[in-house]
Amino acid sequence: MKVKTQIKAKVTNGDFKSLRIDNLINIYVDDDCAYFNETPIPKRIAEEIIDSVKADTPIRLHLSYIEYEANLTLEVEDYGLSIKQGDKEILTIKFYGSKAVLLTLKHEYKIRYADKLRETLRHKVTAYV
Predict the structure, then answer these.
(1) pTM surpassing 0.85?
(2) Angle at 126 between CA 120 and CA 128, to 5 degrees
């Protein structure tokens, strides 16, 4: 079963980088750490995901960062989910047992013991769709 829906994303890019997708996914990068819904991930992957989202609204300039919004497509499948902007795939999350794999255009990262992440995303996505 495949479900597609439009979602809004809000990007903050500057000293502190973040990507918030309709209360489903939160990716943020601070000085030395990066998190995907409170799960630590490599900083380079989080930055790649955030930097790959392009603005669909006018960019708002602040003192030390910029902020913009984007329209994305969420595709939910049996194995996981993927997030796209137009035809460009930004992030794919595949679940295998208790592991999850984050796939971007350039990187792949395996998360062990991803049961909590799977349950959180499943509840949020089910409530959203």
Answers:
(1) yes
(2) 100
